[in-house]
Amino acid sequence: MKASDLFVKALENEGVEYIFAVPGEENLDLLESLRLSKRIKLILTRHEQGAAFMASIYGRLTGRAGVCMATLGPGATNFVTPAAYAQLGAFPLIMITGQKPIKKSKQGRFQILDVVRLFEPICKLSQQIVHGNAIPSLVREAFRLAEEERPGAVLLELPEDIAAERTDAPLFAPHGRNYATAREETIGEAVELIRQAKYPLVLIGAGANRRQVRDALCDFVHSSGLPFFNTQMGKGVVDERSSLCLGTAALSAGDYLHCAVDRADLVINIGHDVVEKPPFFMEHGGKKVIHMNYKSAQVDQVYFPQLEVVGDLASSIRRLKEVLGKVEADFSYFNRVKAAADKNLAEGSEDLRYPVIPQRLVADIRRIMGEHDIIALDNGVYKIWFARNYKAYQPNTVLLDNALATMGAGLPSAMMAAMLYPDRRVMAICGDGGFMMNSQELETAVRLGLNLVVTILNDGSYGMIRWKQADAGFADWGLEFGNPDFVRYAQSYGAIGHRILHTEDIVPTYEAAFASRGVHIVEVPMDYSENKKVLINELREKVCLI
Fold this sequence. Notes:
Layout: H1 3-13, E1 18-22, H2 28-35, E2 41-44, H3 48-62, E3 66-70, H4 74-77, H5 80-89, E4 93-99, H6 115-119, E5 125-128, H7 135-147, E6 153-159, H8 160-164, H9 184-196, E7 200-204, H10 211-224, E8 228-230, E9 245-248, H11 256-263, E10 266-270, E11 288-293, E12 307-310, H12 313-324, H13 332-346, H14 358-368, E13 374-377, H15 381-389, E14 398-399, H16 410-420, E15 426-431, H17 432-437, H18 441-447, E16 452-458, H19 463-471, H20 486-492, E17 496-499, H21 506-516, E18 519-525, H22 530-541
Parallel strand pairs: 1-2, 1-3, 3-4, 4-6, 5-6, 7-8, 7-10, 8-9, 10-11, 11-12, 13-14, 13-15, 15-16, 16-18, 17-18
């Protein structure tokens, strides 16, 4: 058969459902082969970033590699940011790019870049396919690498002459992945450290957010009675309504929960990765840390654990629970920290100021989103407010990026969630800066018939950098811009636009938007004066003698 047909059959063999793409001339053989596929649906997007962000979130939500396709040159280079997003965030992603013929040049060096070498530093594998017979093994290897711990990005380049050649190579059957279990002696050492600790504390990171891990981790936390806190990408792995939950490390230091972190003499760090911006909890000669993950710790100046429990994470957690039992320790200080933090987080949740302050917006969105409903956050200062104030009840109901922390991913992320979970409420939450970076994907969302609400937080500036600028003592300069009329902008794409004119209108506007279904934009004028007041001044003034 034609090599491009074999490529599609290899993708079908891996269970691929969608390919998100902006095809080019060099993809035409593969595009024709996809047209003939009865199992794979092509999702045409308006920018290669949109395609690859959607594929990355497919990988994050399903555990199976998402697949995207682009042409050579500028199409491929537009995959660079999503590739880094998937690689740092540990989302399984397969990128397919085209290339000019490699056996005989037709057009010299027109549009030709060394795409394979360009992507090598930000992928688990980046490789050109040089013969049709290599397709089955390379596709199988690409999916194995993308999906196994630690997941990440893979690029395969398919030149157009290779796609058109004939081949009779057989496919390779996929198989499940098994990980070695931690040594029993190591589990015993961990148990002994926990029993010796006066103030043990659990930290839940992004690596614990795997389907096979969640149940075991919930059982461990509640059977042991150990208080816990999350990194941003660990939100919802264990229900944050739990009386044991101290909150989310939305800031690296200085928040209320850091009082508990500072008091802890042992941190059981489950699924954390130094790629995710860490809460500062280690110093030489300070507390001890147990690292529990599929792989050994990447030692860093801020992370150098004394004990590593390496192996299948779910098995390690279950065995630790069995041997450890209920932990008898004095958690009264942690309980006081939780009470103080909860009181602080509740402040402003009923505030009627307009433009809207972040605390009120977060509280109102939490009121209208159900237990399994999903918010997808773009990147901006509001991400800190949502990470800190918005309690996640279920895994992957708060989609945010605390690794690459890129702007422009919020809308495509929400679109993917809406495709996978059509019966849930799904909301993208974007700053006006990040939204405009991929706003053209509104057309894709409308064309796909998605049910989706897109919140645009309008402050007419790059607010995160403006906040950092103020904190550093610099003049307020160079970060403000103008915006389109977002209501009319939504209408131009066939979506429905809303603008919040009174703070009391937030909840009824969202309820009406979700009730009428389709794609809706809700523009919320924002007052970010609370950033400096709460996140800087008040936290600096707090004392940890709780």
